[in-house]
Specification:
Number of strands: 7
Strand content: over 45%
Number of helices: 0
Shape: globular
Radius of gyration: 15 Å
Number of domains: 1
Oligomer: single chain
Helix content: under 10%
Length: 99
């Protein structure tokens, strides 16, 4: 029996300060976060054929107030060309029961 190969790709998504909800394929793996010019991006390995689900990210600048519930798994720190420093957290996928 021939094994099916799942094609993976690296996609990028743009983030804004505070809460973000992004549609991305299920079981995506976050690689990193960084600025590309003035845009804060997160790079993710995806299987494009997987079902799309909503995934949360939280972005806070150094010294900003943060709600403990908003902070997820730390992804990385990104340095804006203008000097500000941002911290990106992966809050995970919304539960399949949420709409």
């Amino acid at each position: 029996m021939r094994k099916q190969i799942m094609t993976q790709e690296i996609w990028k998504f743009t983030l804004q300060p505070f809460s973000n909800v992004i549609d991305m394929p299920d079981h995506a793996r976050v690689l990193s976060a960084a600025f590309q010019g003035d845009d804060l991006r997160v790079w993710v390995v995806v299987v494009p054929s997987n079902v799309q689900r909503k995934r949360g990210f939280f972005v806070a600048g150094t010294g900003w107030l943060c709600d403990d519930n908003a902070l997820g798994t730390f992804v990385g720190t990104a340095f804006h060309p203008g000097g500000m420093v941002f911290h990106v957290f992966d809050c995970g996928y919304e539960s399949k029961d949420q709409k």
